[in-house]
Amino acid sequence: MSASRITFLAVATSFTAVASLQSLIIPVLSTIGADLGADAVGQTWMLTAWLISAAVATPLLGRAGDLVGRRRMYLLALGAVAVGSLLSAFAPNLTVMLFARVLQGLGAAVFPLGFGLVRDAFPPARLAGAIGGLSAIMAVGSGLGTVIAGPVSAVIGWRGLFALPLVLAATGLVLGWFGLARSTTRATGRINVLAAVLLSGWLVALLLPLSSGNQWGWGSPIVLSLFVVAAILAAAWVAVELRSRNPLVDMKIMRLPAVWTTNATALLTGAAMFGVWAYLPRLAETPTSSGYGLGVDASTAGLIMLPMLVTMASVGFVAGPLSRVLPFAAQLTLGAFLSALASLGIAFLHDNVWTLAAAAAVLGLGTGLVTSSTPNLIVRSVPADQVGIATGMNANIRTIGGAIGTTVFAAAIGATLGAAGLPAESGYVAAFVIGAVLALVGGLVPFFGRSRPVRPEARAIPVIESPLEELAEAA
Length: 475
Known about the structure:
The protein is mainly alpha-helical. It has helices at 3-23, 29-36, 40-68, 70-89, 94-106, 110-121, 124-156, 163-179, 193-216, 221-243, 251-254, 257-285, 298-322, 328-348, 353-379, 387-414, 425-444, 468-474. It contains 18 helices and no strands.
């Protein structure tokens, strides 16, 4: 088996493991909380701990990989996922579970590290197809938890859910240890400690109120104070980066039209995507007594989401060859528009399982195009020694968008709670319309910048192969 195929298989396995942890516990959060004695705040922290850990680790370990070697950082991040998954499966209390979720969050760094490893291992003619395939796998993994959590936990319990990321992480570690080559392209300099502290600080200060604002109250002093702190630290971080000889994030790279427009679209479509993922199953599970809900169980709600995974994977694997006739920038816009259409469909056509499943299928098409085109635009637009930090920041921006999206959806739906504890139909309609607007605006953003590579050789990258061949031969 060639080195490029081993690299693709190792990275694909790790992407599935880490991405699944984003949504794996959401459908069974209340069940886990009951077993571990965690109230609503404690349950929220199971999600927040992963979110903050991932947000901090993704750019920092991505940059460390650019400097000291991506293989080394990749193995470290994936090892944290394996240990965290094992601890989660046997967690006796909330404290251990939160520590395990922090370890799992460190694994989010495999996304920028994995894209960098693939760029090192693949020739230009096959690079775009490989990145598109990995992006599809990452997106499918993110939605996988929503689909399988209900049925799997019903059979073997919620602790058994962590067997999937544990086995995948262990497999990725073995493949990575024996099959990944050490990075030959490395950045020079060192990690700017002050910039790293400021970056971590504003990410934590921003994500804490976004994820816990519903419990703390949006007008509470702690929420308002954290937003102010986040703004101050973010401004200080940018000032430090602009003056640094060894910036953690090169602001010249971030200002490139292909980069900033792609990041802006990632923020907006991420908000729409994660909001729909979180609340489409809840809409379907709403009791029929509400007058609009379908009253399905968690397993059926997961099956409604299944078409999304199928279309998402399908379009992701053909995004590379498709770019010969539809450039990645156009794919990004089309994907955002399809996501907006799906969200509108859910808002106004949710009276039966089949219409929701059809909307989920369209959402999968849109999400697949967005997630496969985004890293391709970033990777082909930045120098080789900036791939880790550039893709890491893009993943972080999508994460921030996801936190914003779920918060906005929760606020719109929660504002219509009735005496019976059920939200009004108008709350769901408003939330999904907001999701559609976010995705629509995200699709328009690329028109404000030109997606051009900064490296002359990147312009000549032909897109002629699909990573399906890599998977077939690897198997």
